[in-house]
Design the sequence.
């Protein structure tokens, strides 16, 4: 299937237009059902409301620096819906939607941005998920190893990892792609190309016409998709997952998307990009496109959209209050989880901190 | 018991653990078919198959980064970095992930693995093949760092490192690979990480060293004994978490300390040991704690090594100075 969407020929996989009209699916192309589409919509609304609420909290001084997902929600929501719940999920840091698909609680999510490591206490047996990875481009290698080890253990679990387009300039992106190709591991590398890595546009990030085409040099397929079209995301990841599970190796997916908000609450994007550009992308907002589709097919009414938004905001507010009231980090927390058994040298340091 | 060299003891440890635990896998550059450039993994691929001992592309960050994922699934990767001077591309993975996964997840996930590498000079190798990197790793919270100086400890420490629930940097003194022979038990045994070894007891001075430099320290101790000096010699074995009790206890007995190591002096292991002694044995000191360490220079290429390495004569001279010190 990927052969028909060669990025080097300018092809981009897309089904849903800006007005919410869905193009016909070719035979064999996985299609998100209307029921799944509605579930995806609710998750995306929740993610959006969490972002909006986090930004307003940040302005009130109740929330430290926060990285927004706004405008990119379809990528991780669609991708995680196409994976099995026990497949490994290795996020970067703009995949709130995918985390919600995995059942991560909002309280836990807020706790992370609130600055508490207990947010990442997610047992592998339950979540099969790695914590948010801050060092850009370093996490894809973990997914390669996770998938390799699952195959060694004889399971059919695979792994999906996320990165931003800027991470493709890091050496570890190359090492991850190269090892994935050589070892033919069941890994999907999903690059969210939101066009800006903080202030640097793709044209200054790489001389390569597309990110997806880099895959061919590593010996596996790459595909460019409309990352603001949840149907395209689901289809591409589903196809890549089937390939991976069948032992056919990795796939690189470049989801074309746009960060509608700032890089983080500490960033001012007006310094480096134009209002016109943002307005163009607002028309392509993945949430609005899906909403238009659901309204058009009558899977959803205007009243229901309002209700879902209100309910989601309330959820976000409640979860944040829970996170705010959660016990603060105690001094033992920062000492007792470096090693299974804390060395005596550190215990002595802890005693002095407590004294 | 068989008499083994230090590097044979490394191979023996790997084989022992691979035999008893299927989750132990060994990989790195040229470790499979060739058995490693120093032959530390000789015969393992033949014995355990390509699935458990395999060659990787030249990709240090890739080797260590992939090992993180493997360890989280439950495997015990033992990876080889061909020379300590080539570990730097993997530094991001080690300092940002290997050492931090347990803390980052408050214990939900962990990445136990062993990162082995030959280190240190004196092997007349090209540039970037002789670095002493123990202090760099010892300074990264979340890692354990061990260095054997004998075949017995090489086997026992490596087995302990493989069985350890946390990541261990296992530094192998390349100069001692074939220079030291010793009887080594055939069965598997662990040498406790975090425990120094008093190699020889004495009353006049404590000399602490580790790795290849132990060879000069031993020679010096013997020669000093012939002169009538009673020197206690301690092999530190673990850089982090180091055995402060053994260090303090010995210096409280002898009242004098000399630390000898190859790595650069400033912010080196000796500085930490001396500070510990000042904190906990100050009232017993009869002389200022002393150190003989590598200078703060880039490790020279072979024509300059003689200006860098520390000889037994230099250890003896420094030891005499510490023992004869009077306020």
Sequence:
């Amino acid at each position: 299937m990927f052969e028909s969407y060669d990025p080097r020929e300018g092809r981009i996989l897309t089904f849903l237009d800006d007005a919410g009209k869905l193009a016909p699916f070719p035979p064999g192309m996985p299609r998100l059902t209307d029921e799944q589409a509605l579930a995806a919509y609710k998750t995306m609304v929740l993610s959006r409301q969490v972002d909006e609420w986090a930004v307003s909290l940040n302005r009130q001084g109740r929330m430290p620096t926060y990285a927004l997902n706004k405008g990119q929600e379809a990528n991780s929501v669609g991708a995680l819906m196409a994976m099995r719940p026990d497949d490994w999920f290795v996020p970067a840091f703009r995949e709130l939607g995918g985390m919600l698909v995995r059942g991560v609680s909002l309280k836990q999510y807020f706790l992370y941005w609130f600055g508490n490591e207990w947010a990442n206490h997610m047992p592998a047996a339950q979540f099969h998920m790695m914590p948010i990875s801050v060092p850009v481009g370093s996490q894809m290698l973990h997914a390669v190893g996770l998938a390799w080890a699952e195959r060694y253990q004889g399971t059919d679990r695979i792994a999906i990892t996320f990165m931003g387009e800027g991470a493709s300039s890091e050496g570890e992106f190359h090492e991850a792609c190269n090892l994935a190709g050589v070892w033919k591991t069941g890994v999907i590398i999903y690059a969210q190309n939101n066009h800006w890595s903080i202030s640097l546009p793709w044209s200054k990030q790489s001389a390569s016409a597309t990110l997806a085409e880099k895959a061919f040099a590593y010996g596996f397929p790459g595909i460019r998709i409309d990352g603001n079209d949840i149907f395209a995301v689901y289809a591409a990841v589903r196809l890549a997952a089937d390939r991976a599970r069948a032992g056919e190796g990795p796939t690189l997916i470049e989801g074309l998307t746009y960060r509608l908000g700032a890089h983080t609450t500490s960033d001012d994007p007006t310094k480096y990009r134009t209002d016109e550009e943002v307005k163009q992308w607002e028309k392509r907002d993945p949430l609005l496109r899906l909403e238009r589709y659901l309204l058009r097919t009558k899977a959803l009414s205007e009243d229901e959209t309002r209700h879902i938004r209100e309910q989601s905001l309330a959820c976000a507010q409640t979860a944040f209050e829970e996170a705010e009231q959660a016990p603060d980090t105690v001094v033992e927390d920062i000492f007792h989880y470096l090693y299974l058994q804390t060395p005596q040298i550190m215990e002595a340091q802890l005693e002095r901190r407590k004294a | 018991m068989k008499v083994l060299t230090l590097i044979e003891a490394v191979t023996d440890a790997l084989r022992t653990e691979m035999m008893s635990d299927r989750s132990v896998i060994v990989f790195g550059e040229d470790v499979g078919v060739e058995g490693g450039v120093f032959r530390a993994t000789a015969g393992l691929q033949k014995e355990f198959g390509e699935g458990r001992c395999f060659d990787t592309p030249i990709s240090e960050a890739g080797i260590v980064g992939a090992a993180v994922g493997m360890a989280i699934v439950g495997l015990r990767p033992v990876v080889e970095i061909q020379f300590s001077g080539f570990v730097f591309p993997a530094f991001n993975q080690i300092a940002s992930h290997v050492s931090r996964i347990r803390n980052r997840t408050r214990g939900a996930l962990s990445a136990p693995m062993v990162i082995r590498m030959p280190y240190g000079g004196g092997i007349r190798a090209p540039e970037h093949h002789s670095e002493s990197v123990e202090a760099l790793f010892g300074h990264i919270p979340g890692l354990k760092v061990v260095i054997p100086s004998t075949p017995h400890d090489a086997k026992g420490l490596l087995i302990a490192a493989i069985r350890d629930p946390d990541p261990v940097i296992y530094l192998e003194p390349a100069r001692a690979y074939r220079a030291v022979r010793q009887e080594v038990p055939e069965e598997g045994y662990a040498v406790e990480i975090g425990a120094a070894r008093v190699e020889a007891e004495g009353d006049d001075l404590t000399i602490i060293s580790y790795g290849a430099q132990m060879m000069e320290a031993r020679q010096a101790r013997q020669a000093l004994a012939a002169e009538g000096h009673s020197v206690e010699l301690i092999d530190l074995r673990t850089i982090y978490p180091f055995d402060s009790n053994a260090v303090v206890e010995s210096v409280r007995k002898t009242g004098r300390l000399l630390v000898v190591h190859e790595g650069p002096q400033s912010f080196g292991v000796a500085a930490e040991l001396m500070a510990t002694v000042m904190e906990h044995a100050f009232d017993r000191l009869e002389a200022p704690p002393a150190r003989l360490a590598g200078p703060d220079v880039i490790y020279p290429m072979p024509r300059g090594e003689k200006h860098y390495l520390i000889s037994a004569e230099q250890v003896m001279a420094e030891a005499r100075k510490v023992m004869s010190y009077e306020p």
